[in-house]
Amino acid sequence: MTIASVSHIDYDTTPENLSAAQAEFSALLGPDNIDEDQETCVAHSGSRFASADSAHKPSLVLYPKHTEHVSSILKICSKRCIPVVSYSGGTGLSGALAAPHGGICIDFKDMAKIWDLHETDMDVTVQPGVGWMQLNAELAGKGFFFPPDPAPDARIGGMIAMGCSGTNAYRYGTMKDWVVSLTVVLADGTIVKTGNRPRKSSAGYDLTHLIVGSEGTLGIVTEAVLRLTPIPKNPHVAILTFSDTHLAVETALSIATSGAVFDALEFVDQSSLEVVNQSGLFEDRWAEYPTLFLRFSGDEATTQAHSALIKSLSERNKCLDVKISSDPEQVDAWWNVRKLMGKCLIMSMKPGDIFLASDAAVPRSRLADIIVETQEATADVGLFCSTLGHIGDGNVHVAFVCPQELRAKGEQLIQDVQRRALRMEGTITGEHGVGLSLRDMLIEEVGSGGVDMMRNIKLSLDPKGILNPEKIFRIQA
Amino acid sequence: MTIASVSHIDYDTTPENLSAAQAEFSALLGPDNIDEDQETCVAHSGSRFASADSAHKPSLVLYPKHTEHVSSILKICSKRCIPVVSYSGGTGLSGALAAPHGGICIDFKDMAKIWDLHETDMDVTVQPGVGWMQLNAELAGKGFFFPPDPAPDARIGGMIAMGCSGTNAYRYGTMKDWVVSLTVVLADGTIVKTGNRPRKSSAGYDLTHLIVGSEGTLGIVTEAVLRLTPIPKNPHVAILTFSDTHLAVETALSIATSGAVFDALEFVDQSSLEVVNQSGLFEDRWAEYPTLFLRFSGDEATTQAHSALIKSLSERNKCLDVKISSDPEQVDAWWNVRKLMGKCLIMSMKPGDIFLASDAAVPRSRLADIIVETQEATADVGLFCSTLGHIGDGNVHVAFVCPQELRAKGEQLIQDVQRRALRMEGTITGEHGVGLSLRDMLIEEVGSGGVDMMRNIKLSLDPKGILNPEKIFRIQA
């Protein structure tokens, strides 16, 4: 459906309608589970990475306790044409939490239970408010873990909505690979369970994976069955420092095509290590050069073979320094530096600075090209630029911390990265999602036919357009 | 959308309309690429596993050469309300090739090219008529392979349509895990490219994986970018013979939860080995007992560790016989027995016999239960029953070869297996798809809400319902 052929969608966020809805929500949830505090509402429309905009805030935040609550909320919103955004960890980068048409926000803080851990089947059922780090802490004693590792505070609801990934995606794949089935509430309040707990299924359309990455626009997830996997034994981290980006990328590509199974291949540029050193979060001082962070695991023979491969490639590619450790404290400390780089970047912001990021991904053969072209394009513009990323997946994070007055320039440079990725047969977003910020560029990736296809699907499941409106694509002209 | 609320869909397969369409197809493709031979038409409505039904045949078979041909064909069919089924390898088991409303069949035999092998990116572009064995033969010299391994004659088009898998799914995942992006022609002829070649993307709804497994009902795939992976080094096969199904399953589960990476875990029952022995296809005579076929690979230390694990578990679980080989000829010969079991079953059929199969999947903890309950339920009914399957994935294939007069009984027993799987939190189909044969049972798995959701999506993309009508769910009352 082209955007021109969508019949007009009318939301009703008049004070009368919202107030009548609030009375219904109150009868349903109790008044304590409804928040109309303005500060809370603004805070729910953004994240630490995508600043909230008070013009795009919900009027109410609701705290349901279970699936039936969510179903009842959506029946009320559907009847009253009130937009609905849902919220879990609040770490998104693409503006998917903004409420451009107002309405309500569903916060899953009180739906954070974990149950039904099946050890033989290696699966577990969780509610959307569960954090991935909380889940892994609970599972640790059982010998299992859940691989997707986005921002440390991210929670399952948002991780499903955004189809997230992280450093583990290189070995383990992204969120979609770890969701077995979902309980989803559709716009009209219908509760759909997309499947049971088999490891695989061909039973009709893959509704589970249509919902993963749909950013809350097709339905709201209230339960998820997640796959688990054994915790890798004997983890090692290697830190490789290079004089030159090309040599670092070359080394990573040689590892990726060697057939040896590594757990993670991460690239970090000199600027990223600058903010690490400035943050004061870590004891060690890092050499500010292009650096690879590698993780691998396995029995003695495997990790020895991996270490030997790293050393031989380092020599060939003139590595300045190689450090490898299997000491658990050292492994955690080094990997923590990589995981906290987002935080270091945020810490480096001065009052009034804005944070702009791209997470384009390209075929791996184009990695050096996109990194170097981006570094060249941003060298002389007076913006602080950090480039790092999941190099094993071809996923490059380019971030600017820039003063408000250079916003337009920064935004242009970010778009340049995304268009560069498309020219290199890549994607405008490898893991952060489209949200509001990329919706007009999505058409350059999947064409008007692809966007129309998405809009058709959206309107077939949510004809009033109440679920997270305006995200991923414009819903009406 | 409930089925009752679908406005009536009218197909026009009158001789006048088909004849006018034929003239248009002829101008497009040339008369040599249109086949109206009745035998050809019947043959295209079934497979060796799902017998063709002359009441459900297309009136014409078309042989396009490229995407634009397919787009033009669909524009004609859309304008004229003519149903369209597509055909590649003809190995499906669920009746997805039947043409219950007649119409045309698109056969991809002339769209079987392979191009753009990117070695660093480990991806390749193929047309739907390419067979997976042909693809792997071409890739062998490069050190890569494409893991999904359904029936030996299956081709990429059907493999995508049915969301297939096979013995490699245990380690490598199913078809959806190996499709990077697709070129799809929608019902109205619109050509959509669902993405480029990044290893991951969060750019809007996952159209690629909505199409995988949609059985040709949402769009027709004309090109696919597929991921590849290095050929595993030093492959080993182990054959373990047990006196008892429970002990075989127990052994497989211990391996699956050990953290050791095996390439395949397959179970075969005594009846399956009976037909292997009867087939005359193999030199060796097989002991007719519950048997595990295991495959693993890796460096010397890894394969030694795997062999030691197998031996220790075999001892604990009173294995009657253990054979392990890394001799390439022996490895191929043993694995070939597993791969050709479908053929052996077909060979065991007498004239007039029918083949009935279920491929339900359950959480692995319920594997022994479903196998043993099924064996007990079928022990005294006078039907030949073979049970084998991808035990590592909890996917159990139960097949009956039975005389026509026992069809009703056989069909009832197959449904019992599927309902047993649902009771055990599994799925009615792990890899063969819904087609015509399971559409009325799908509602027991995903509920009426789930089926309505699928029907909404279908009608939003194909409002005239011309693409493979009646498959997966009933399209109208």
TrEMBL record, chains A, B:
EC number(s) given by UniProt: 1.1.2.4
Cofactor: FAD
Record-stated family: Belongs to the FAD-binding oxidoreductase/transferase type 4 family.
Superkingdom per UniProt: Eukaryota
Top EC group: oxidoreductase
UniProt-recorded name of the protein: D-lactate dehydrogenase (cytochrome)
GO molecular function annotations of the record: D-lactate dehydrogenase (cytochrome) activity; D-lactate dehydrogenase (NAD+) activity; FAD binding
Catalytic activity of the protein: (R)-lactate + 2 Fe(III)-[cytochrome c] = 2 Fe(II)-[cytochrome c] + pyruvate + 2 H(+)
FAD-binding PCMH-type domain boundaries: 54-231
